[in-house]
Amino acid sequence: xxxxxxxxxxxxxxxxxxxxxxxxxxxxxxxxxxxxxxxxxxxxxxxxxxxxxxxxxxxxxxxxxxxxxxxxxxxxxxxxxxxxxxxxxxxxxxxxxxxxxxxxxxxxxxxxxxxxxxxxxxxxxxxxxxxxxxxx
Length: 136
Prior knowledge:
This protein is an alpha+beta fold. 54% of the residues lie in helices and 12% in strands. It has a single domain, classed as 3-Layer(aba) Sandwich (Endonuclease, Chain A). The chain is built from 7 helices and 4 strands, in the order ααβββαααβαα. Helix 2 (21-32) crosses helix 7.
């Protein structure tokens, strides 16, 4: 059954932009390893989900829908309000590139993880972060 515009709007308004399940999974794993971080630091471009300020490490937990995972195939799945959603998600993807380039040019290491990878491979994602943390 197709959803009404009101139902879709309501559902989209409930999407979290911080403290999402994927962020919480990864943060809990890092915390249990003794790695202390800051969350959603507004003064750092892109407001990274997890930040190790002193080591200049920014971690982003990117959900597949909002950040355009497998975009060439997935954009065909969007059935309603296509012009709006495709433009919005493509702008998100462009912004991700801009934020990554800016931070890297400012001496930061930027790590981005897809939500499904965080769910399936939480420890491995944390291993990647910990390795960079130890190297810096």
